[in-house]
Design goal:
globular; binds adenosine-5'-triphosphate; 26% strand; alpha/beta; binds magnesium ion; 234 residues; Rossmann fold
Length: 234
């Protein structure tokens, strides 16, 4: 099912952070959202999760209008967010963090989902009884993603998943994205690391001062002179 968004806007008080953003994300599609600090990436993801007040002409998954839906209802429709800064619960173990991501009541299913995450991220399996606060930055990022996956999303949003991580971990996150998309999960990845995001994505949108200023296939944007200059240091 395609997520269709038209004229999505977010303001904090009178200050607009996102203006009239229009975009689509298809089933199993990986879409990158790139932009500098303060461009409005996190605001866009939070608006999709209904974590901030927002307005839109259209915000629909297939035919279902989600505009007035709460965070809880959007999660039930298959939305999940791995937030910027990870926000794992430091005093809980890896396993307990994962358990909190599962919103159903079926303990067998919860165990199956956690096992699937441990297959995807073997480092978490080795550390399942370790407190999340003692994990490395890369391990905490994997845990934040895995926790979001525990809800069984159809539409996964990752906010700056590679910030401050070593190239090997960045690569693992890229591999994770290519794996989940084969299961039909759509991924929206917000990144300042345009190189990583564009190499993982099919298509991308470039945000500048709260507006989408450029969009296209990831391959085209990688070749775009303005993108190269602004985001790829070329
Ligand atoms: N809770 C808030 N209250 C007031 N202003 C906010 C709030 N959250 C974000 N903003 C402002 O909205 C604008 C967009 O911020 P946002 O966090 O969406 O950008 P971003 O692209 O995610 O940036 P970064 O790459 O630094 O994470 C910024 O000018 C920011 O200061
Ligand atoms: Mg952000």
């Amino acid at each position: 099912m395609t997520l269709t968004v038209q004229a999505l806007g977010v303001s904090y008080g009178t200050v607009p952070a996102l203006r009239e953003a229009s975009f689509t994300i298809g089933s199993g599609e990986v879409v990158a959202l790139i932009g500098a600090n303060g461009a409005g990436k996190s605001s866009l993801l939070k608006a999709l999760m209904a974590l901030v007040p927002h307005r839109a002409d259209k915000l629909a998954l297939g035919d279902a209008d989600l505009r007035t839906r709460t965070t809880r209802e959007r999660i039930a429709r298959g939305f999940a967010l791995s937030p910027e800064g990870r926000h794992v619960f430091p005093d809980l173990t890896v396993q307990e963090n994962l358990d909190l991501g599962y919103l159903g009541r079926d303990t067998t299913e919860a165990t199956q989902r956690a096992d699937a995450m441990f297959d995807l991220f073997p480092r978490l399996a080795e550390r399942r009884r370790q407190h999340a606060g003692t994990l490395s930055g890369g391990e905490q990022q994997m845990l934040a993603i895995a926790r979001a996956m525990m809800a069984g999303p159809r539409f996964l949003m990752l906010d700056e998943p590679t910030l401050g991580l070593a190239p090997i971990v960045v690569q693992q996150i890229g591999q994770f994205i290519s794996k989940v998309r084969t299961q039909g999960v759509s991924v929206l990845i917000a990144e300042q690391n345009a190189e990583m995001a564009l190499s993982a994505a099919d298509r991308a949108y470039v945000l500048e001062n709260g507006s989408i200023v450029l969009s296209g296939t990831a391959a085209d944007l990688l070749r775009d002179p303005a993108v190269k200059k602004a985001f790829l240091g070329l």
